[in-house]
Amino acid sequence: MFFVKLIIRNAFRHRLRTFLTVIGVAIAVLAFGMLRTLVGLWYLGVEHASATRLVTRNAISLVFPLPISYYDRIRQVAGVKSVSYGDWFGGIYIDEKHFFPNYAIEPRYYLDLYPEFIFPPEEKEAFVRDRKGCVVGRRLAVRYGWKIGDLITLKGTIYPGQWEFVLRGIYRGKEKGTEERLLMFHWDYLNETLKKSVPRRADQVGYYMIGVESPAIAAQVAQDVDRIFKNSLAETLTETEQAFHMGFVSMTEAIMIAIQIVSYVVILIIMVVAANTMAMTARERVPEYATMKTMGFGPMHMAIIIFGESVFIAVTGGICGALLTFPASRWIETELVEYFPYFSVSMTTIYLDLAAACLVGVVAAIFPTWRSSTIRIAEGLRRIG
Amino acid sequence: MSGIPGKPLSGFTFESYMEDVSQNQPIVEITNLSKSYRRGSQVIPVLEDISFEIAQGEFLALMGPSGSGKSTLLNLIAGIDKADMGTVRVAGIDITHLSEKELADWRAANVGFIFQFYNLMPVLTAFENVELPLLLTSLSRRERREHAELALRVVNLTDRMDHYPSQLSGGQQQRVAIARAIVTDPVILVADEPTGDLDRVSAEDVLELMERLVSDFGKTIIMVTHDPRAAGKAHMVRHLEKGILTT
Question: ipTM of the predicted structure?
Answer without folding.
Answer: 0.86
